[in-house]
Amino acid sequence: MAKRYVGAVDQGTTSTRFIIFDHSGNIVSAHQLxxxxxxxxxxxxxxxxxxxxxxxxxxxxxxxxxxKINPNELAAIGVTNQRETTVVWNKxxxxxxxxxxxxxxxxxxxxxxxLAKEGGKDRFREKVGLPLATYFSGPKIKWILxxxxxxREDAEKGEAxxxxxxxxxxxxxxxxxxxxxxxxxxxNASRTMLMNLETLGWDDEILKIxxxxxxxxxxxxxxxxxxxxGYTPKxxxxxxxxxxxxxxxxxxxxxxxxxxxxxxxxxxxxGTGCFMxxxxxxxxxxxxxxxxxxxxxxxxxxxxxxxxxGSIAITGALVQWLRDNLKFFExxxxxxxxxxxxxxxxxxxxxxxxxxxxxxxWRSDARGVIVGLTRYANRGHIARAALExxxxxxxxxxxxxxxxxxxKLAALKVDGGMVFNELLMQFQADILGVQVVRPKVSxxxxxxxxxxxxxAVDFWNNLDDLRKNWGIDKTWQxxxxxxxxxxxxxxWLKAVERTFNWIE
Length: 504
Hints:
Elements: E1 5-11, E2 15-21, E3 27-34, E4 46-47, H1 49-66, E5 74-81, E6 86-90, E7 100-101, H2 109-116, H3 125-128, H4 137-147, H5 151-156, E8 160-164, H6 165-173, H7 176-179, E9 183-185, H8 186-189, E10 195-196, E11 201-202, H9 204-210, E12 219-221, E13 230-231, E14 243-249, H10 250-257, E15 266-270, E16 274-281, E17 292-297, E18 305-312, H11 316-324, H12 334-339, E19 349-351, E20 369-371, H13 379-405, E21 411-415, H14 422-432, E22 435-439, H15 444-456, H16 463-469, E23 472-476, H17 482-497
């Protein structure tokens, strides 16, 4: 049967999708399902790995059925995932020892403080490009080893194994306890705080300091691998043998989906959090401004490409919070209607430091604040301030990027769920003072994973094939004068300072 499509599992913080693309990079079929958010106590966030696997299988079957597609028409499958979310499971039974600890979770704060006693929060930055923060997987593995009975013993025996969600799903997709392959790619490995940026291998010194047995860790492979990670078993959820050969952390997948293949090209993804990623070429650029040095992608035998990343913890999640916790509106996209009931933010600023502040501050002692409230302020002003918070945080990251890289950004490519909010996108262009561009296919994360898998099996021949698929859907030009822009931004920075030192 002719191979006409490539499929991508897009496993995100709140939902799992399976999206099927054709050779032109168009969506042929998609199916999406949410999973539960588990909050055992303040600051702790978990997911059930078995629920995620169940949703993945349902999403795959749903997309194939909707598109009336035979699994044998798929040339390959790629995986993209919420990064840093940590699973430890038994390789013989396939059962997790504990829920997945989500990237937003702050339970490892004591471990971080302990590690920072020697060398401060930049103790490992030279090797791994990351500050010590609750965000990354390594300390989460340590927490599970230290707090869940029996895991350390099983890890020493080689029975307890670790993975970010990409590794967990690839292991299951390729047969689990029967024949599953235990792999990750360079982008996901670069988010553990355990991978050396120069060697692209696990760092023995850091493993020793954190007390993590090396045998727990997956093999690090290219993001697009012609040597194929493994195949789906014929008696598995797809009912066909399909190569699984693409793997990218979600933000790197969006970089690939947006075809940011040249140094100096950047994209910003607006999801649960917000993540700006700049291609810096084949040499890592060390940040002096609170950004992360990370892997962009590695295709086959070619040199790995690095990036600078600014990570913002809470953007779309703030809209969900207004919807679910404060009942401001019924549907997330209703926020735009509510925000448009007022002319401006009424001098209200909302800094959503719910799990501390990420780039460029890395303050786990910060917590969320709403400032500037008067009797004049209403729900519309708070809704508008929530949207503006996303744009202001993006400006902070862009300023840091330009400082670190010396590259002045001409336009920002955007993707993710929030890019259909016209008010936000216009304000984003205004507060940055640069053009904002939305591509025709906004599902760039899944598209990037499908590109990685498709390149590995020659479904696409080269990067030019992918560039041809990219097209503009809409652009926003800045309309705000410089004086207003800087006045609003100065107020925002003042509001951010109010979040510091809340946790003693």
